[in-house]
Amino acid sequence: MTVFSNKTEIQKHISEKKAKGITFGFVPTMGALHDGHLSLVKEALANNDYCVVSIFVNPTQFDNAEDLKKYPRTLDQDVKLLKTVSKDIIVYAPSVKDIYGDNAKAEHFSFDGLEFEMEGRFRQGHFDGVGTIVKRLFEIVTPNNSYFGEKDFQQLAIIKKLVEKYNIPVIVNGCKIHRETSGLAMSSRNTRLKPNYKIAAPFIYKTLKDAKEKFGTKSANEVTEWVEKQFAKHKLLELEYFIIADIETLKPVKRKSKFKTYRAFIAAYADDIRLIDNLALN
Ligand code: PAF
Description:
- By secondary structure, the protein is of the alpha/beta class.
- The chain has two domains: about 1-175, HUPs (Rossmann fold), CATH 3.40.50; about 190-275, Pantoate-beta-alanine ligase, C-terminal domain (Pantoate--beta-alanine Ligase, Chain: A,domain 2, 2-Layer Sandwich), CATH 3.30.1300.10.
- The protein has helices at about 5-20, 35-45, 65-70, 75-85, 95-100, 120, 125-140, 155-165, 195-200, 205-215, 220-235, and strands spanning about 1-5, 25-30, 50-55, 90, 145-150, 170-175, 235-245, 260-270, 275-280.
- Strand 5, helix 8 and strand 6 (about 170-175) form a beta-alpha-beta unit.
- Helix 7 packs across helix 8 and helix 10 packs antiparallel against helix 11.
- It is globular and about 55 Å long.
- The structure holds pantoate.
- The site of pantoate has 10 residues, from strand 2 and helix 7.
């Protein structure tokens, strides 16, 4: 397994291999790797000769300096973990300077309105930061395929839009949410949960499942009110939003149509840790 921290070196390494017809899958991450990431890596290895994993805590996608500071950074452990998966993994763990030079600023993007919903309303500039880093990483790594988890469903939709708008020659693959046995969606942030919050957090997925059942007979508004009530009664978790959205536009559903596909989305705080999750409804 090779670890690169310099973009020129990894570019050279990849372009030499690509010239021989070798294919690359790409899993961009911010590190603190868990089984959810590993499932993306395995998917990449099953469909490409090599898997490139980038490990970079991207400063331009954080709207909160404290969150950026506290984000777990565990590079040595991450590299060790990847070694247990396969030797055909290439790690790219750049510095902020290698990516941004002296100007760690996000570009501004239009994602045809997808960026204004949900996470976009609560995390100012977040998707400009994500768009900036993913576009740069795609340019450096030039993968054939890329793999993103559906836990960040809106991010996945935005990256598909980025690739379409900029004609980037990369296939974007969405992969199913990986869950702990408790049902809690795997996230690097889970390592920061205090024990009582860790026990409480699966309530998010349980509520999504209950919402799905109710959506069979009730309106989106009724289900939303019901979910808001469940969280209002909860002692530890604080709901930021619950939205039932059309998966094409990510806009909240007003009136149900049997011709559309919907998903329920939750963002909630467990102490100061922000957790998100979502579930397909039909
Ligand atoms: O999902 C993430 O971990 C990040 O948003 C990504 C895609 C690696 C960009 O920094």
